[in-house]
Write a structure and sequence with these properties.
homodimer; about 400 residues; alpha/beta; Aspartate Aminotransferase, domain 1; Aspartate Aminotransferase, domain 2; 13 strands; about 15% strand; globular
Chain lengths: ~400, ~400
């Protein structure tokens, strides 16, 4: 098709008066339906005494109940003794950790709010809500390019020589939004990182640790905590995870796993913050997810089809024109339209398809190549998703 | 009985090898049983679309769902538009508010961590966990004596002339631990307070707003928010409440109510912290507590007996010797043993009865009169409670 024909096609879509929002990685209704049983595993006839003899309806158990620690231990491969269970949001834990580092410092080091400058490493493209936290605290964010096997480790090893660099955001498996998984080599280099700042921490967000699409390959992630222990360096990493995209988004449980040393410091501070998190919901999740793998396969059956729809439309329309990711898990497809991302997103918008804003996956919303578009296939039904993908592909062809 | 006889009696109790913990205001098993229905009101067959058409299983609704806002609106008498719903702990909200004031300041004012000195007013005796938060943040706490109708307002009005005084802790109804309720006059003076610091806030913890004992008198608390609005002073107060002692401690929902101005600032900051709290639990509570008053009366039927047991033992043993409170609601009885509180608590401990540490109800754990003992009747069964009360009374008589 020539430009004129493309524009005619675009007008045809415009006349459909669509209103399709694919801006966020929200689970779809059918995924949520797979977790309805979660609401029945504990009811008024249940026993409320857990395996350690605790009445889960009452106050107490600041660090969470054992049943739930075991669930996260299975997910992360980290001992239950090194796990703390929180409320419904791992993002909230990360916020809380940075907030606490600002006001009280990390493990006895100077509170960051007393320092002139705090810097943070941000592999890009990355997760917008991570960057929003560091921006909110006035932390200077430094872009680190992502390779196929993880972030540029040479650059990271160089940057951590600066003592004002205090942390890094990582989504090490099925990365948000590129979908890549860090190689064993990259994980080992993280595990043996020796930053100049003693209070440097790796914020290792295993958001998609069990979120395989089962589409021909299952990525596996080396256990950073085990590797760090080999180097006597286990204080360097906080491993976050949650059930947000496993059961009900917003009504799940979240956890952090880290060294004994870190756990002790955190516990001591945590007791000023709360008397403990929702233990009933913790036990609910432990019961319901007793066969986590089969549950995740059912979710994958729904998600995989959606990733295939987007990929097949792009294959048909955009092959040889632009590149996009073909992940084996996670929630996103990254589409690269060098120099034209903003324009494509605006064109889609005018046709009733809302994508995440351009630059969303970069600190300060600046994608200097104006290239990256984050596609979230999960929430839409297949027909809408196909339509949206066609409009995206068409908009790319018009703008390029 | 003479001293020798008292000590003989004490030895008799000691030989029973008791292990009774009445140190914390935890709900009793029978109270918790009254909320079992909470676990059935939402199950796998429920509709998950709320009255505003929102699928409560998914992400979103940062400020909470309307059904739950209405519940807290009924509890606090404040419009639902002025209410934010959080997770399971109002203490956690208070922590979060102070933490945010440290790092970001209140409504655009200088972050407290950038100031040399922050001071806080603490009516005493008060709630230990309040004081733990301000101590944790290095805020200097100033004792304010409590009268029968609330804290000493003359002193408060004097102290707030100091711009480094940024807040006050209040439990205005059935106060922890004295059980008193602030008079209308005291509430009005709070509502019209004009502190020198623009970022001064009243932390108004309505922990026991519906926790009447129905023992002859129902205390009522003037609505501070309405009063403050009359004075165009509504930014001054944050009103906290929760269902922690209404349904399951630790698995409830918590809220804060405040001015539009404050709400807007908080919302803007909150969106960096989380995508929202547990909406399923919010709806569960809204459904289950549709007849809140009759639920609270059932709880009172359990609690009232326990308060009566303590009071009757003290009446029998301690009348004319020492004073104690006779509250109409809340969770605590305050016993005053001038100069001997620490000794009484230690003597009880040696007899197998654990009370809260002496000084617990004072900033920095310093009760300069060594007088106050906090009695928590709720958790124990009646027989144990009677025994414990007898041991306390006996210990008082021995020590005095």
């Amino acid at each position: 098709m020539n430009k004129e024909e493309l524009l005619k096609e675009y007008q045809r879509y415009q006349s459909m008066n669509l209103n399709i929002n694919m801006s966020r990685g929200k689970p779809n209704k059918h995924q949520l339906d797979l977790s309805l049983g979660l609401l029945d595993v504990i009811n008024s006839s249940s026993s409320f005494i857990n395996e350690n003899g605790i009445d889960i309806r009452n106050y107490g158990e600041l660090t969470g109940i054992d049943e739930c620690k075991k669930l996260f231990s299975k997910m992360t491969g980290i001992n239950k003794e090194n796990i703390l269970i929180y409320g419904n949001s791992s993002l909230n834990i990360m916020y809380d950790f940075i907030s606490r580092s600002m006001t009280h410092g990390v493990n006895g080091n100077t509170p960051w709010c007393k320092l002139d400058k705090i810097k943070w490493l941000c592999p890009v493209p990355g997760y917008d809500r991570h960057f929003a936290i560091t921006e909110y605290f006035g932390i200077e964010m430094i872009n680190i390019p992502m390779n196929e096997d993880g972030p540029d480790m040479d650059l990271i090893e160089e940057y951590v020589k600066d003592p004002s660099v205090k942390g890094i955001w990582c989504v090490p498996i099925y990365s948000n939004p590129t979908g890549i998984t860090y190689s064993d080599e990259v994980v080992r280099r993280f595990a043996s990182l020796k930053p100049s700042a003693k209070d440097f921490r790796i914020y290792w967000d295993e958001a998609y640790i069990v979120h395989h699409l089962y589409n021909g390959h299952i990525d596996s992630l080396l256990n950073i905590f085990t590797e760090a222990k080999k180097e006597h360096n286990e204080d360097i990493v906080y491993v976050f995870s949650s059930t947000s995209k496993i059961t009900f988004a917003g009504s799940g449980v979240a956890s952090v796993a880290t060294s004994n040393n870190n756990i002790n410091f955190i516990k001591n501070q945590l007791k000023c913050q709360t008397l403990g998190y929702d233990k009933i919901n913790q036990l609910r999740h432990a019961y319901f997810l007793s066969d986590l793998e089969s549950h995740m396969k059912k979710i994958a059956d729904i998600l995989r089809k959606k990733f295939e729809v987007v990929d097949s439309v792009f294959n048909k329309e955009l092959s040889g024109i632009v590149n996009w990711s073909k992940p084996h898990g996670g929630y996103f497809i990254s589409l690269y339209v060098p120099g034209k991302a903003k324009e494509v997103i605006e064109r889609c918008k005018k046709c009733g398809v809302t994508l995440t804003d351009s630059g969303c996956a970069y600190p300060y919303h600046i994608d200097k190549d104006n290239s990256h578009i984050r596609i979230a296939p999960s929430y839409l039904e297949v027909d809408e998703l196909r339509l949206a993908s066609e409009i995206i592909a068409l908009s790319v062809k018009i703008e390029l």
